[in-house]
From TrEMBL:
It is found in: Endomembrane system. Its EC number is 2.3.1.15. Its main location: membrane. It comes from the Bacteria. This is Glycerol-3-phosphate 1-O-acyltransferase. The lineage of its organism: Bacteria, Bacillati, Actinomycetota, Actinomycetes, Mycobacteriales. It comes from Nocardia acididurans. Pfam families: Acyltransferase, GPAT_C. It is a peripheral membrane protein. The keyword Thylakoid does not apply. Belongs to the GPAT/DAPAT family. Residues 264-391 form the Phospholipid/glycerol acyltransferase domain. Keywords: Acyltransferase, Membrane, Transferase.
Length: 787
């Protein structure tokens, strides 16, 4: 009932008496505990011969017979632990047990009697960490004056102690919280916060308290060991037949060590509905306690919602608006879970990626975590960036359809049935990689968050510091995910095929185009999937055939040999695979365009022009990719250039970038600008041209405007003013609109100036598009003689 691990009581003298708080649900359990006590169980376990009083672990009984005692007994929680039968060396509930209408962890009273006779190994009497009554009073100073509240605190402490003792037997993967809502609703600090909200809003205190309790009951995940076992067994075969899971054991060992001291918050990339199942299965297999997974309320439909809630899913409203009560409940619940060292998991992009790369992060839940640190509710939390990358994904067809104006199908029973059917096809590997854990306290402090209010700091300045620190922390998490995301066979194959603009390639041509990029990846020692497969003709053929089955690649077999190209209408799907690894090539692509700009500048001004172009491209792409601060970006780009030309520093000592540097780029065997950046800049061009053609005095409805961009983008594609269908994407148009807003192009006081700036912006993007086209011409894979 204390937080230390020792089984011995902390009191300095031998207790004069012992109170056994018995958590029993049947006569059989009471008999088992009674026999154990009469046979000297307490004496054997704790080395004391003091007389023992047996008392129910019930608030009313505790309030009547324990709270008011003037002596200082040793309080020991006791219960009977029932175990499933051992199957293949593991004790776990199965659907066989469910078929017999029994839960082997909670057998009914008739089955209990039978198990005592026939299978005595299926139960044991368990004791939790004991405490002296004086220690319980010291640990709960706010409740001692209220006997009923103190009794409830003792009962909660006893249950927690028994839960910890159970986990020592059955494993940490069965760590589940109990009596959460009751404990939060007994918190004086939380109740005071609700009173403050009531006073500020003018709502009666009783109504505010009722709303808080309702929200809390809606929010709290009521985890069940039975449902967790059965749900895992139900979902594992579905996904095991689809993917071969590839995870790193070293990363898990490191996290397990950290988890002994800190709660972990897993922050995975979000590409599929299956992400939580894949990660949860890996953690369960490695005996991690189950995460509390924060999910959107759109997935709380029957039967998935009730099941998921009992496996640890916390369904949270998509938007709180100005509901201060709900905000307070969410913040309190998160702080409670972290303070009790329960692990959390949420998808900080706010939803599945629609393009294949990371989306900009949402800060709401990280703000709650930072608030818990500032209030000193928790000492620290370790944030774990997690990359989950699929070689193939069955749901990207629907994702691509949404990007071209299709409506998102609502989740429900029909959607769930279709989802299960889609998982019946093999989809290669899924790679799960754990990035370097980040200390939330350390990183927030490093980014300027004071983590406590200083009287000398103005409130608005303090809020700005806190907000900026959380943003930078989210940025670090995103970079941590990208740093461990591997390049998969499909990512590299689609990267090359998307770059040859509608041409079909033979396997030899494709392998020739892949080889220098593969060499580049190996030279940088970047994380990779099974890329060696692509060097082998048979292996490459298998990859291409699987992409053909997925209708991403089309194969023509009527000529001398098969030729392969991106399937008509599948460019967004192909881009999704490519974009999972596109961040590894962005600096190279920017470098190419900067060099092209430099060689066009007057001699002596070339180096400056090149760097200015690089910085400008970084600024234009800041809503698509995660760039470091300018100094580090400069260092990264210099390193990239040295990979191409080891004599770079010598050549540029005079500030001149000669044509030989451009030749070095082309001679490396590949160009990246047209493969990596064209779709993003084409989408920006559509947005810029529509803004330039727009009446500056007209109010802009963003949803209507993006729909207009989709329609006009399709026209520009037919006119070949855009180079690929992957540019016509609501997600890309949305990011481009944020960029335009950031540059002050959505509104302005001077309509003539606003129109002029919009026109200049569109002209700049047309210039960049022209440079990207020149880079494409230099790419050997776009020249037949090179292949």
């Amino acid at each position: 009932m204390l937080d230390h691990d020792s089984r011995l009581p902390e009191a300095g003298t031998t207790p004069g008496s012992v109170v056994a708080l018995v958590d029993a649900t049947s006569r059989v359990e009471r008999e088992l505990v009674g026999n154990w006590l009469s046979e000297g169980g307490i004496a054997q376990e704790f080395g004391t011969s003091a007389p023992v009083t047996q008392l129910d672990l019930d608030p009313e009984a505790v309030a009547d017979r324990l709270v008011g005692r003037v002596d200082d007994p040793l309080v020991v929680p006791v219960r009977v632990l029932w175990l499933p039968p051992e199957r293949d060396g593991v004790r776990r509930t199965t659907f066989t047990d469910l078929a017999t209408l029994s839960n082997p962890r909670k057998p009914n009273k008739f089955l209990q009697r039978r198990l005592v006779r026939k299978a005595p190994d299926r139960h044991l009497v368990l004791t939790g960490q004991p405490a002296r009554l004086s220690e319980l009073r010291a640990n709960n100073p706010g409740t001692v004056a209220a006997p009923e509240a103190f009794a409830r605190a003792i009962v909660r402490a006893g249950i927690v102690a028994l839960e910890r003792a159970e986990r020592a037997v059955i494993g940490d993967r069965y760590k589940v919280p109990r009596l959460v809502a009751e404990e939060i609703l007994d918190s004086r600090e939380f109740l005071r916060r609700l009173d403050t909200i009531a006073e500020a809003t003018g709502v009666p205190v009783r109504d505010v308290h009722r709303r808080a309790e309702k929200a809390l009951r809606e929010l709290v995940a009521a985890q069940s060991r039975l449902v967790s076992d059965l749900f895992t067994q139900a979902m594992r075969p579905i996904h095991a037949s689809t993917w071969k899971v590839d995870s790193e054991e070293n990363g898990l060992d490191r996290l397990r060590t950290l988890n002994r001291r800190y709660p972990l918050v897993f922050l995975p990339s979000h590409r599929s509905y299956v992400d939580a199942f894949v990660l949860g299965d890996i953690l369960a297999r490695n005996d991690f306690p189950p995460n509390h997974v924060v999910g959107g309320a759109n997935l709380s439909f029957w039967p998935l919602g009730p099941i998921a809630r009992r496996t640890g899913t916390v369904f949270i409203r998509r938007s709180f608006g100005d509901d201060e009560v709900y905000k307070a409940v969410v913040e309190e619940y998160f702080a409670y879970l972290l303070a009790k060292r329960f692990n959390l998991e949420w998808y900080f992009e706010g939803g599945r990626t629609r393009t294949g790369k990371l989306r900009p992060p949402r800060y709401g839940l990280l703000n709650y975590l930072a608030a818990a640190l500032r209030s000193k509710r928790i000492d620290d939390v370790m944030l774990v960036p997690v990359s989950i990358t699929y070689e193939r994904l069955n749901e990207i067809g629907a994702i691509a359809d949404e990007q071209t104006g299709g409506s998102k199908k609502p989740e429900g029973l029909t959607w769930l049935a279709q989802y299960v059917r889609n998982q019946q096809h093999s989809a290669g590997h899924v790679y799960v990689r754990f990035g370097t854990p980040l200390s939330a306290r350390e990183r927030l402090a490093a980014h300027g968050d004071p983590l406590q209010a200083h009287g000398i700091t103005a409130e608005d300045e303090l809020l700005e510091l806190e907000h900026r620190a959380v943003q930078r922390l989210a940025f670090e998490v995103a970079v941590g995910i990208n740093e461990v995301t591997p390049v998969t066979v499909n990512a590299l194959t689609t990267l090359v095929l998307l770059g040859v603009h509608e041409r079909a390639l033979t396997r030899d041509e494709l392998r020739t185009a892949i080889a220098p990029v593969l060499g580049y990846l190996e030279g940088r020692n970047l994380p990779r999937g099974e890329l060696a497969t692509l060097r082998d003709d048979h292996g490459l053929a298998v990859v291409l055939e699987q992409l053909a089955v997925a209708k991403v690649v089309t194969v023509y077999r009527g000529g001398l040999e098969p030729v392969y190209s991106i399937n008509a209408g599948a460019h967004l799907e192909a881009a999704f695979y490519r974009n999972s690894a596109v961040h590894w090539f962005v600096n190279r692509a920017i470098l190419e365009l900067a060099v092209l700009t430099a060689v066009e500048a007057p001699e002596g001004d070339q180096l400056r022009a090149g760097w200015e172009a690089a910085y400008r491209l970084r600024d234009l792409l800041k809503f698509e990719f995660f760039f470091p601060e300018r100094t580090e970006f400069t260092s990264q780009l210099t390193t990239e250039m040295l990979l191409v030309d080891q004599q770079w520093h010598r050549r540029t000592a005079a500030g001149t970038v000669g044509a030989d540097v451009l030749a070095q780029l082309a001679g490396s065997g590949f160009m990246m600008a047209h493969r990596v950046l064209r779709s993003f800049f084409d989408a920006q061009l559509v947005v810029a041209e529509r803004l330039a053609a727009r009446d500056p005095a007209q109010a802009l409805d963003k949803k209507v405007f993006i729909d207009e961009c989709l329609q006009v983008g399709k026209q520009m594609l037919l006119q070949q003013r855009l180079h690929s269908p992957e540019s016509v994407s609501s997600e890309l148009f949305g990011s481009a609109l944020k960029l335009a807003d950031n540059h002050g192009l959505l509104s302005g006081d001077d309509p003539f100036d606003l129109t002029a700036r919009r026109i200049r912006f569109a002209a700049e993007l047309r210039d960049i598009s022209a440079r990207i086209s020149r880079a494409a011409v230099l790419d050997p894979s776009n020249r037949l003689d090179a292949l």
